[in-house]
Amino acid sequence: MRFLNYLLFSIFLISSISYSQEDTATDFKVEYEKFTLSNGLEVILHEDHSDPIVAVATMMHVGSNREKPGKTGFAHFFEHMSFNDSENVPVGANRKMIPEWGGSRNGGTWSDGTVYYEVVPKDAFEKILWIDSDRFGYMINTVTEAALEREKQVVKNEKRQRVDNAPYGYTDEIIRKNLYPKGHPYNWTVIGQLPDLQAATIDDVKEFYNKYYGASNASLVIAGDIDIQETKKLVEKWFGEIPSGPEVGTLEPKPVSLSESKLFYFEDSFAKLPELRMVFPTVEDYNKDMYALQILGQLLSGSKKSPLYQTVVEEAKLAPNVSTYQSSSELAGEFIIRIRANSNIDLDSVKVAVEQGFNIFEKEGFGDKELKRIKAELETNLYQRVSTVLNKAFQLVQDNEFKGDPGYITQTARLTNAVSREDVMRVYNKYIKNKNFISTSVVPKGQVELSLTGSSEAEVWIEEVKQDVASEEVEQGEEAVYEKTASKYDRSEPEFGDLPLFEAPEVWTASLANGMEIYGIENREVPLIQFDITIPGGQMLDPEGKAGVASLLSDLMMEGTATKTPAELEEAIGLLGASIRTYSSNEDFHITGTSLSKNFDATMKLVQEILLEPRWDAAEFNRLKSALQTSLKGREADPSSIASLAMFKLLYGSENNFGIPGSGTLETTAKIRIEDLQEYYKKLAPTDASFHIVGAISEAQVKSTLETLAAAWKTKAVSIPEFPIEAPSKAGTLYFIDFPDAKQSVLLIGKLALSATDENANKLAFANEILGGGSSGRLFQTLRIGKGYTYGAYSGISENLEVSPFYITSSVRANATLPSLKIIEEMVDTYSENFGEEEMELTKNKLLKENTRAFESLEAKLGILRDISKYDRPSSFIKDKQEELLEMTLEDFKEVINNYMQEEELIYVVVGDKATQMEEVKKFGKEVIELDIYGNQL
């Protein structure tokens, strides 16, 4: 899958810095300047002065498609290795220092490439060039045996978390092995096989680096608040001496074909629902047919009128939804049909329904209106991806490296817009109709009879986790001894630039005649607006014993109006290029959406219709209730969800709505009737509601548009009940939940702390930063970097009006469960005494600088408005929060830690394999109580 799809889950993306209200998607141009260094590195610069931040993205043209059988997973592994040490940067700086500067950083590897990226406040711009260039050109001499072994454990933990411990995690491996023949670069997964990884040597690492990490095999994009001429000089200084490297040959497209369909089944120990995938081989990225195939995917299942939705969901009621989409990579492509069916559904019946949908599509085709709707939605999607400098950098760097043209997205927009009905039917007939495919039937353990008839058992490699942690113990080890690479420049750490001043956006407020308050921020970087109506109540207004009513109502409200069927409403929204959704949280009910600013009036008319003229369609209610129960059944396969459900039940008790998931449980949702939703609907009142809006629209336009809604919506508010907190948990207790055969144990540790309105709420958030605030936190640095026990470890504070938890979370390899618990226990127990002046200054510097990038996107700005209205904060609250942080003394930090982060007050929830871990956790020294997957004591 191409990188932008892989990372952003988007099928369409564009970059620009200018527009007019009359512009269409194809009018946009990418503004950039490109030049090439003497070593072959291609550099693209993009100026965007809207925020004092800079994004840097370096893309290496090497992914898993350059590997060989027996050495799979190496491109991804090397990405991990690259974040360790380099010649001129202190050990561990890449993962630790960048967050401390107020920045963020990460990397990604996919079949065709590897990308490294950072976003930092403007003052750290040259520091990022220093770190990024040193990782690129000066890291290989620093690789040690200890670093190699430590990173192997981290990658193993990543695979366990994302593949081995996840339902349907092996599906990609099954498809790749059988769609692509042996020797094809896509025959193996990106993460590879663990035995290959375990066998990797330092010589392998050096060979890979020397072959693929030359400057001529990469593109560098710098986007943001920069000066072009000054940046050119800095790029020459920091990147100009990196060796060009050997010429890396071009890989030509290598599409595959199937002489027959191949059907496979796999019994998944974790899956609770049967899932069918059908994969048809298609075309590579940038192939002209790709754009028609993308639209075909939308036409087949992307709306309520689409044929597969009709046959699978509406008529046969076999699944909650259907997904069809095109996935193109550098060498080949796939058209994928994915259906996770309802419990106990025979997948043969699902396949029959798919074929019926194909027949309808072939006979009836589709109209101009459907094509227009999809293109309108793509136009809005286009603008949504313009609002951050990082996304601009991603698009520029990918199109340069894989197409040789940073501005190719303009052509992509034209090609997409030019797709005709004939194009869509042509690619359907060429790649899908009566064509061979790979199918996977992934079914719950013991339910092979649900698989497609004629399926063969799929072969996958499953790791056997060793019981003793010592067999995989790692350590920091000594630093490498080497002769530093000569340079004509001083490659020591540069100084910070001028401190960027964070300016909170100007907030305007108004009131409507019906009592609803309006909060707005005008921002005209893109021709979009985002809005949100927040109505207090949410799950707190669910009737007793029927948790899930508010959530189910939010789903039903999008299923048509009094004058529009569900399909007609969906089409009306789509033709505007808008999106509208309703959802419920613990304390609020939301109606939120996005639209082109030119279509705001028309979008709000639909919002008013959704809000005030519900359809109350009994058939849709029954379908949604069935889909919800399917989702709740699927949740039983997710160890993180199991841990969360148990934790909240233990902290709040079953009499408090916070102790029950907002979507309800199988027990509570079974009791819900449509009349319950109708009674709840009467409580949606404007009196205490707030309307939030951000984007390219004026205060006067917003108020004018909302007058009609204010006149029509006059429901009287109801009081929101208060619930007692009767926690059944006991501080200092460990609660264990069996998840048989788990390769990892999920750890969720916490206690109730305070409400977001508490005077100490900000202080507690500040005090947590050193412990678990991202990759620079002690939890991450110790459990992942130091020990290799996990892929990540964090702590935080939930934010609600209700008293909310302080929590610690991680997923650790199974045989490291006990050592991890001991490390966390000691770290929290000694946190106050180990928090000194250095930690205080580091916290202040990090959090203050984070604000320069924290509110860049429209969604982030909308979050500012939500905070102001919900928690009754002044419009200056961000500035006030900064001043509160600056005024904190070391004694203040220690007092907050001692009051809210005491280890003996924590409860521990562990979800893992009882057979191997129960006796281990008993050695932890705390009382152990076993729960079932619903949080009930056994």
TrEMBL record:
Residues 1-20 form the signal peptide. SUPFAM superfamilies: LuxS/MPP-like metallohydrolase. It comes from Gillisia mitskevichiae. Belongs to the peptidase M16 family. GO terms for biological process: proteolysis. The keyword Manganese does not apply. Residues 200-378, 672-847 form the Peptidase M16 C-terminal domain. Keywords: Hydrolase, Metalloprotease, Protease, Signal, Zinc. InterPro entries: Metalloenz_LuxS/M16, Pept_M16_N, Peptidase_M16, Peptidase_M16_C. PANTHER family: NARDILYSIN, NON-CATALYTIC MEMBER OF PEPTIDASE SUBFAMILY M16B-RELATED. GO terms for molecular function: metal ion binding; metallopeptidase activity. Residues 43-167, 532-639 form the Peptidase M16 N-terminal domain. This is Zinc protease.
